[in-house]
Structure formats: C-alpha cells, structure tokens
Amino acid sequence: MITVLSKASSRLHPVVADASFPVLVALCAAHCCNDLLQAVVTAAYPMLKADLALSFSQIGLITLVYQIASSVFQPVVGLAFDKRPFVRSLPAGMCSTTLGIVLFAFASSLPAVLVAVFLVGVGSSTLHPEASRITSLAGRGRRGFAQSVFQVGGNFGTSIGPLLVALVVAPRDRTWIVCFVVVALLAFRAMRPICRWYADYLVRRRDTREGGAEPAPARPLPLRKTVWAIVLLMVLIFSKYIYMACLSNYFTFYLIERFGVTIRASQLFLFVFLFATAVGTLVGGPVGDRWGRKPVIWISILGTAPFSLAMPHCGLALTAVAAFCAGFMLSSAFPAILLYSQELLPSKLGLVSGLFFGLTFGVAGIASAVLGDFADAYGIEAVYRACAYTPLLGLVAWFLPNLGPNRSDAAVRG
Fold first, then answer.
1. Sign, CA torsion 395/397/398/399
2. Does 5 have pLDDT greater than 70?
3. What pTM does this model have?
4. How far apart are CA 152 and CA 147, in angstroms?
5. Are 190 and 29 in contact (CB under 8 A)?
6. Residue 246 and residue 363 in contact, taking contact as beta carbons nearer than 8 Å
7. Which of 175, 267, 294, 391 could join 305 via S-S bond, C-beta 3.0 to 4.6 A?
C-alpha cells in the first residue's frame, strides 16, 4: 500500500500546478460534507429503531426510499444538465439535503422519516452527477487522480459521519442531529469557488464552440460493444453494492447481535470499515491512470471475496480486520468503473455519471430492503453468510473490452 501511495503522490505535482487543482479540493470538500450528512442518517439507524420501535423491514424500507430518491433522479439530472448546464445546481441540491436533515432530527413517525430521507436523497441525486462531471472537466489529463480526490472526500465524509454520531448524538438523543446543519453551511461555502470555475468554463466552452475549434468526442468502441461493456459494468456494480449495502447498513446490528458490543462501539467499528473505503478510493484512481481501468476493476472486486468469505467465521478483532480489507478492496473499484464508463461515452459525462451513481444507490437501496426482510426471517448472521459470495461476480470483469491507452483527454471534451 505504501508503494502505491508513493507512486500516486508522485503524480500530484502536475495536478497542483494546474489552476483547476483548488477546484478539485473544493469538490472533495463539498462531497465530504454531502456524504457526511448522508452517513448521519445511516449511523442513526439503531437510535431510530429504538425511538420508533421499528423492525428490520422498516429500516430496509427507509433505506429503500432514500436510495430510490438518490438513484432514480441522477440520470435525469445528468441528462438535463448535459443539455442545459446550470451553474447553481450544487447549492440547490444542498438546500434539499439540509431541509431533510432538520426534519430527520425531529421526525416522530415513520412517514415523517420517509419524507426526510427522500429530501436528503434528492440532494444527493443532484450533487453526484454534477460534481462528478465538473471533476472530470477539472481533472483534464489526470482524471483518475481527480476522481479519486473527489471520491475520497465522499468516503471520508461517510466514514466520519458515524464517528460524529457516536460522539455527539449517541450520548444524548436524536434531536442533536440538527447540529449537523453546520456541515451543510460548510458545504455551501465550498461550493462557491466551484460555481465560479464552472461558470468560467462554460463561457470558454461556448466561445470555443462558436469558433468551431472543438471536435466532437468519438466513442472508442462500436455501439454493440459499448452496450455489452455497460451491461458488464452494471453486473459489477450489482456485485459490489450488495455487499457494500450489507456492511454499510447492517454492520452495527451484526456486531451488536453477534458480539454484544454497545451501539457506540459498533459505530466505531463502522468507522473503521468506512475509513478503509476512503483509503481504497484514493488508491484506485491513480492506479487506474497508471495501469488501466480494467485491471483495477478486476482485482478490486474479486479480491474482496477472501475477506467476505472469512468474516462470518472470525472473532471480533479479525472481523474488524476483514471489514477493513473488504472495504479497501471494494472501494478502489468505483473510480475505475466510473471512468471506464465515461470513456465509453465521452460526450455524455453527466448522463453516464448519473446513471452509474444512480445505479449504485438503487442497487444499495433494493439490497437493503431485501436484506432487511432476510434478517427479520433468518437472522442478521445469515445475511453475512449469504452476501459473502457476491464479490465472486467480479469474475465477469474478465470479459470487459480493452479501451487501449489513456483516453482521458477525449473523454472530457464536449
């Protein structure tokens, strides 16, 4: 890992020298704040379950509503802003997230909780395709590194959300979630330089197109092979996010039931897993820039299987180690999957970003609902034994077409 991080850091200087690097940092910060607020919702599930006497099936329903709001709208948002870019899209999405967090803190019934998580989901469905598009534009020739910077912000926010809930909310009550409005204010601040840069970029692009100097980016593969590759990527997303949903949404319940840990301790273990996803994301993008997207996808998803298969048979300490390793391996795949898909359709960055971010949330939401019913019927430990085999679907990465050498420049035009 140290060697990989060293090689990744050696690629940093040319990006820092680019005037768009501060925009990448701002995108990372905005993604961190957004995903931290989303993680607060998930981390508060044990408290919410106790407050409202919910079943695992109802917890799965809450996650399903959130994930549908986060997924269904993403391709629509991406396609709409591909055609008509909107400079203030990111702050607009954060307004919805902020309202949802406030309502979630004070919700006293299941319908109110569902409305709250729907609003948070709509905010997320706006941020992810738009911020990913701007990241690709700002990253230029080092899109793998740029996407990793963007993604690691989200993973870091997701990892510290449960930790902050454990420290701030768990010792008191759920209404203290309203304190996280401060995070939303920080997100609005981070979005200001992004909006300025994007507005300038749109002006430059309009002037370039009016001058006739910008050729339309071409697909690297024929339509039939492009469709086949996208189907394979969807299968990989399916395998990755079923297991991610298992760990993200039910890991605390698994630890509490199997090992008898406290709610606060379970959230600390969840932080370990989510921190691993941040580290894996930071590594995956630069490695894909260096050795190609396909090897990263292949190794990261299939390489999760040994840890997922071992986890149901481990003690508490080894469970934490297996969760860390599984999170690291799985999360390194997503930047490569997203960039591979953008390189397949280089003129539709928003649509592709929305489709794949939406697919990840949709698969996670459906999986959470199904796993909640499964846990009610057979127990939470049975969920982990069954889901341990899903990373083996990573074998289908073998059939992905090779796109050839670095296509980053072509993929960011248009």
1. positive
2. no
3. 0.68
4. 8
5. yes
6. no
7. 391
- Joined together, the tokens standing for residue 198 give 């994007």
Tokens encoding 45: 């599930």
Give the number of other Cβ atoms within 10 Å of residue 231's Cβ.
11
Report the chain's C-alpha Rg in angstroms.
Answer: 20
What is the SS3 string spanning the chain?
A: CHHHHHHHHHCHHHHHHCCCHHHHHHHHHHHHHHHHHHHHHHHCHHHHHHHHCCCHHHHHHHHHHHHHHHHHHHHHHHHHHHHCCCCCHHHHHHHHHHHHHHHHHHCCCHHHHHHHHHHHHHHHHHHHHHHHHHHHHHHCCCHHHHHHHHHHHHHHHHHHHHHHHHHHHCCCCHHHHHHHHHHHHHHHHHHHHHHHHHHHHHHHHHHHHHCCCCCCCCCCCCHHHHHHHHHHHHHHHHHHHHHHHHHHHHHHHHHHHHHCCCHHHHHHHHHHHHHHHHHHHHHHHHHHHHHCHHHHHHHHHHCCHHHHHHHHHCCHHHHHHHHHHHHHHHHCHHHHHHHHHHHHCCCCHHHHHHHHHHHHHHHHHHHHHHHHHHHHHHCHHHHHHHHCCHHHHHHHHHHCCCCCCCCHHHHCCC
Residue with tokens 């580290």: 279
Q: What is the pLDDT of residues 247-301, one digit of tens each?
A: 877 888 899 989 998 887 887 888 888 788 878 877 877 787 777 778 888 888 8
Structure tokens, 48: 């919410």
Give pLDDT tens digits for 97-129: 999 999 999 998 999 999 999 999 899 888 888
Task: Report the Cα 87 to chain-centroid distance in Å.
Answer: 22
- If you count them, how many residues does the chain have? 414
